[in-house]
Amino acid sequence: MIELTDVRKSYGATKALDGLSLSVARGEIFGLLGPNGAGKSTAMHVLVGLLRPDAGTVRVLGGDPTTAALRNRIGIAPQSLALYEELTARENLAFYARLYGLSGRRLDDAIDGALDFVRLTDRQHDRAVTYSGGMQRRLNIACAIVHSPELVLLDEPTVGVDPQSRNAIFDNVLALRARGTTVLYTTHYMEEAERLCDRVGIVDHGKLLAIDTAPGLVHAHGGKPRLFVRRNGSEEEVATDDPLATLNALAREAPLDSFHLERATLEQVFLNLTGRSLRD
Amino acid sequence: MNRSLVLARKDLLLLFRNRAALFFAMGWPVLTAVLFGFAFSGDGETGKPRISVADLDASDGSRAFVAQLKAMPELEVDVQEQGAATELVRTGKRAAAVLVPKGYGDSARRLFYGAPAEVELVVDPARKAEQAMIQGMLQKLAGERLASAMGGKGRGAWLAQARRDVASLPEGDRASFDGFFDSLDAFLTQQGEATGASAGGGGGWQPLVVTMRDVEVVRRGPRNAFAITFPQGMLWAIVGCIMTFASSLVLERMQGTLVRLRASPMSGPAIMLGKSLACFAAILGACTLLVLLARTVFHVEVGSPALFVLALACAAFAFTGLMMLIASLGTTVQSVSGAGWAMMMPLMMLGGGMIPLFAMPSWMVAASDLSPVKWALVALEGAVWRGFSLREMLPALGVLVAVGTVTFAVGARRFASRSFA
Known about the structure:
Strand content of chain A: 25-35%
Order of helices and strands of chain A: EEEHEHEHHHEHEHEEHEEHEH
Mean pLDDT of chain B: 85
Strand content of chain B: 5-15%
Number of domains of chain A: 2
Order of helices and strands of chain B: HHEHEHEHEHHHHEHHHHHHHH
Low-confidence stretches of chain A: none
Shape of chain A: globular
CATH architecture of the largest domain in chain A: 3-Layer(aba) Sandwich
Radius of gyration of chain B: 32 Å
Distance between the termini of chain B: 22 Å
Oligomer: heterodimer
Largest sheet of chain B: 5 strands, mixed
Number of domains of chain B: 2
CATH topology of the largest domain in chain A: Rossmann fold
Number of helices of chain B: 17
Structural class of chain B: alpha/beta
Number of strands of chain B: 5
Low-confidence stretches of chain B: 194-204
Mean pLDDT of chain A: 91
Strand order of the largest sheet of chain A: 5-6-7-3-8-9
Shape of chain B: rod-shaped
């Protein structure tokens, strides 16, 4: 579905992509996790042919994403709200759908479907400027999927939205996978990557540092789970691959007052890989 | 092309939803055209038809006729030589010219016999309403003269002269006339003061024959002040449109919609074409509404509708190119707007968008050649009131097409390098 091989892109002295290679399978939700400025959006722009790489090869849906025929099969929801605020939701969707060649009954059906998908049918005739941030984000996604693309690129789709809208967007992303749509999802929120993505690629400074399932990344780069035990007023920390066996062994030595276990997260993975936090 | 039309349609819809943009594209131009139109037509505008009169007879009768004509409050009359009077009509500066031919004085004096008194009315065939009014005024004047001749002392003098005129006729004829004069005198005495209407109202007889002659009018001046101010208003509408669309092009880039457009099957040139089509259509629409308003409310006649369409299309093309250039001058709406107004205001001032070209000092007229506003105004005015032929209009159209081509090419290249790299 997506094949990036040693892709490089620089803006002057700044390397936005520095030998990025990855592949995404059909029907997969693939997450690109990294802090702001890591190169996620640049990678996305390369994938839809908005940017030509300085070096490397880009294959999307088996072809060159700069061709019009291939772009017909891709949808994108940019990080900024790419909406016309003075148009209604229906007018926004109609405009974008027409750009993809839809007309007549197919156009109406596509708009109705997209509105229903993001649950904005009852507000379809209101101008986008009157929507809450979460509703605008959902409309942004609807505009990306109105032409039923095979590949959808969602660039930080939950930035600045309330928890309720965020959950609604999560449902939308999972529904896309259920339809068989491939999703490339960029985020700097590790919880989103863990919750939604089949696989996650961790990027920083334009490089792919690691790629695997979220548990696989944690297992490979997060370090051992840490067991914290408290007895006789003092606390001990033990790193262990088998917390249960370790806990039993510690309990046999002397009675425990309390204990808790901390497993590594993608945040920890990122910290271990880069030496800094995702939110730095 | 289809996708460009979709984009243009969306932009026009957004224009209609933007009240401020609509005001600058339509409201402000109408305001300036109407206010300045009234201001310019305030001095010397009497509302009376202006006519010239040429006295070729130079008799007492014709001089009296001219004097009475000049005294009519409904008309503004000046005395000219025959050629000058006709030329004033031909150049559209007078509604008509009254030529009083040789022999008028004798004919007017005879009244009921011999050839009737006659004047020639040289008219602009396009000014039907004024023509009918002037004709009526001349008949009214003749009626008043007849009433004057038939009443009081004037009647005695006229009858005495009439009896002398017919004295040389054969006996039978002379007796008939004398009988008629006696009856007329008795009747008018009995009726008291006779009126011109009663005297002139019988069976098709007229106290004055007015012969009409049309002249082919060559208009070199505007019909009224609105013919000047509405083309200027159109330029303001054009500027309002190009500033709106230049800003909207940059706004697409700023708000992220350009990313989505570029990720669609639409090419970069197709996006710029769509924007340009919207701007072009908005200019045509705004100017068409202005010219309809000028025509229906302010009686501005478009001399050549075909040439007007051509001039408007070329002006829209030129300024659409300028729109693209302005859009490439900055990276934010604020910077593009600032740069755009900084560019357009001097061009408007220099090109006649504020001060009419004919009111400019000669050095400014020469300098105005540098402004595309001037060429757009010349072309539009050429079609509206300057009476241009296509050949006369071609230089202005050529400049506009050249300006549009160059500015579009430069602007599109600059914008593309910033947005589609």
